[in-house]
């Protein structure tokens, strides 16, 4: 069985993330969505909220593709998480050159830790390349329309959070 790990904070999950998830499903039999706890980033949504959003968004993808998607919170090293879930590949989305520079360093470090786990880069769809969770949160916080960047349930969660 081919198992892939797609890690991120998913704070919140965007249409860019969903695009990568859908396309990664063509590469693996099981895709584990690793939701990073990462307290240093100061997430807008709790871990439980982010996991619930990812599970809800992935339900339709799983039904459509027939593949298996598992949502797995993690706080350890990415390479250790990959080992924990039995992943042979780590899936990473790229939007721009700046992403590549950071990811290039991460791949080098991960390969030094475990050369048997490959990293696969997927370019975001051209219509989704500008989407970043950080920018989506900022637009929402300032009262802007994020409907082009997230699904309606995620947009509702952002609106509810803004009203608090």
What key phrases describe this protein's structure?
globular, Rossmann fold, alpha/beta, five-stranded parallel beta sheet, 164 residues, 5 strands
Topology, element by element:
Elements: E1 3-8, H1 15-24, E2 30-36, H2 47-65, E3 68-74, H3 78-85, E4 89-94, H4 97-113, E5 118-123, H5 133-141, H6 152-163
Parallel strand pairs: 1-2, 1-4, 2-3, 4-5
Describe it for me?
The structure is a single chain. This protein is α/β, with parallel strands linked by helices and 164 residues long. Helices cover 46% and strands 20% of the residues. It contains six helices and five strands; from the N terminus they run βαβαβαβαβαα. The protein has helices at residues 15-24, 47-65, 78-85, 97-113, 133-141, 152-163; strands spanning 3-8, 30-36, 68-74, 89-94, 118-123. A five-stranded parallel beta sheet has the order 3-2-1-4-5, sandwiched between helices.
Number of helices: 6
Radius of gyration: 15 Å
**DSSP strand tally:** 5
Computed structural class = alpha/beta
In whole angstroms, how far apart are the ends? 44 Å
Strand coverage percent: 15-25%
Molecular shape: globular
Kindly report the spatial arrangement of strands forming the biggest sheet: 3-2-1-4-5
Q: Which CATH class?
A: Alpha Beta
For the largest beta-sheet, the strand count, sense and barrel status come to: 5 strands, parallel
Q: Let me know the CATH homologous superfamily.
A: HUPs
Give the name of the CATH architecture: 3-Layer(aba) Sandwich
**Per CATH, what is the topology?**
Rossmann fold
């Amino acid at each position: 069985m081919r198992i892939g790990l797609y890690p991120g904070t998913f704070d919140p999950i965007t249409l860019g993330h969903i695009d990568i998830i859908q396309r990664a499903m063509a590469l693996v039999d099981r895709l584990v969505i690793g939701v990073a706890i990462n307290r240093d980033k100061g997430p807008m949504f709790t871990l439980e909220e982010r996991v619930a959003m990812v599970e809800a968004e992935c339900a339709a993808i799983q039904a459509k593709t027939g593949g298996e998607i598992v949502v797995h919170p993690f706080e350890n090293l990415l390479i250790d998480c990959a080992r924990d879930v039995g992943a042979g590949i780590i899936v990473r989305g790229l939007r721009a050159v700046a992403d590549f520079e950071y990811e290039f360093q991460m791949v080098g470090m991960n390969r030094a830790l475990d050369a048997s786990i490959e990293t696969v880069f997927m370019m975001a769809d051209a219509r989704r390349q500008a989407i970043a969770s950080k920018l989506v949160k900022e637009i929402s916080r300032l009262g802007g329309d994020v409907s082009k960047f997230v699904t309606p349930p995620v947009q509702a969660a952002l609106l509810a959070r803004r009203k608090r």
